[in-house]
Amino acid sequence: MFQPKRSSLINKRLVTCTVALALTALVTGTVWAKDDPFCSNWKLNKDKSKVTGEQMKIEDLGDNKYKFTQGDESNTITMDGSDQPIHYGRTMSLTNESPTSFKMVIKRDGKVLSSMTHSLSDDGNTQTVKGTDYKPDGSTSDFEVISKRVGSGSGWNGTWESTKIDFNSPGEWDVAPNGSNGLTFKDPAYKETWSFKFDGKDYPGSGPDVPSGAVASAQRIDAHHFQMTYKINGKVLNRNTFEVAPDGKTMTVTSHQTGQPNPQTYVYDKM
């Protein structure tokens, strides 16, 4: 949660969420909700954000089986076009299209969440993923991810790091008070809601794409900063820092995904 949706290769459809909130209040005293600088409507500024740097490892295990590892989570899939279970109640299918391309489809409860094609460059060192994300209201958004090979490997085998990401999802959050010591984040495009208090306790999210067992805990640092931890079934997936600029016009989210070497930075402008 709390990231522009589905910006890495398998990305937020496997963990969704695409953006997690991690919070740990370090201040004594309360920030009154009516004056909270986070309370506003925010829209992602793609030009100011740095969402590249995520890595994914692909291993060819033979017999048409492939292992995908992102962060500290792995899924092994047979490339035969069938829907196979992966993390968080989803399925994935892989279909071979050519020696240098395959199609990936991710579903939940039989409904397509994302469909994409992975393609290798002629020299085998660049991977391009072009796909479509399907929103709960039936609308779609397209995305493209270009990744370079990191280290050794040939064919699909190796570690891939994203170097360019393009998407047309709006990336909006409506933020409102949740009592005098908490916030509610709503994503209108994905019908996703997260309400929490700054008390370090776990609060579940709601929405058609929110996995079962997904929770966020938060703590305040000061009026313009808070930290959040996003977990699924007790496992930490993301730790994030939220900051509103002194002029109140931008919100920056720095996201650290468990097992990933590089953080991503998402900058939102006040609408």
Structural write-up:
The chain has 271 residues and is mainly β. The protein has two domains: 12-51 and 169-270, Calycin beta-barrel core domain (Lipocalin, Beta Barrel), CATH 2.40.128.20; 55-167, Lipocalin, CATH 2.40.128. It contains one helix and 20 strands. The strands form two sheets. It has a ten-stranded antiparallel barrel. A hairpin with a 5-residue loop joins strand 14 and strand 15 (203-206).
Structure described in brief:
This protein has 1 helix and 20 strands. The chain has one helix spanning 12-15, and strands spanning 41-44, 55-62, 65-70, 73-78, 84-85, 90-98, 101-108, 111-120, 126-134, 140-150, 158-167, 172-177, 182-187, 192-197, 203-206, 214-222, 225-232, 235-244, 250-257, 264-270.
SSE topology sketch:
Blueprint: H1 12-15, E1 41-44, E2 55-62, E3 65-70, E4 73-78, E5 84-85, E6 90-98, E7 101-108, E8 111-120, E9 126-134, E10 140-150, E11 158-167, E12 172-177, E13 182-187, E14 192-197, E15 203-206, E16 214-222, E17 225-232, E18 235-244, E19 250-257, E20 264-270
Antiparallel strand pairs: 1-12, 1-20, 2-3, 2-11, 3-4, 5-6, 6-7, 7-8, 8-9, 9-10, 10-11, 12-13, 13-14, 14-15, 15-16, 16-17, 17-18, 18-19, 19-20
The CATH architecture of the largest domain comes to Beta Barrel
CATH class of the largest domain: Mainly Beta
What's the rounded overall pLDDT mean? 88
User: What's the Cα radius of gyration?
Assistant: 19 Å
How helical, in percent, are the residues?
under 10%
CATH-assigned homologous superfamily of the largest domain? Calycin beta-barrel core domain
Structural class category: mainly beta
Gap between N and C termini, in Å? 20 Å
What is the number of E strands? 20
